[in-house]
Amino acid sequence: MESSAILTPSQLPYLFPSKSNRKKAYPSWPCSKPRTSQPTRLHCQKMYVPGFGEASPEAKGAKNLHNFFTYIAVRIVAAQLQSYNTEAYKELMEFMDRHSLNDGDKFCASLMRESSRHKGLALRILEVRSAYCKNDFEWDNLKRVAVKMVDESNTSIMREYVLETSQAESEK
Amino acid sequence: MESSAILTPSQLPYLFPSKSNRKKAYPSWPCSKPRTSQPTRLHCQKMYVPGFGEASPEAKGAKNLHNFFTYIAVRIVAAQLQSYNTEAYKELMEFMDRHSLNDGDKFCASLMRESSRHKGLALRILEVRSAYCKNDFEWDNLKRVAVKMVDESNTSIMREYVLETSQAESEK
Question: Of A94, A122, B17, B83, which one's alpha carbon is 20 to 30 angstroms from that of A42?
Answer without folding.
Answer: B83
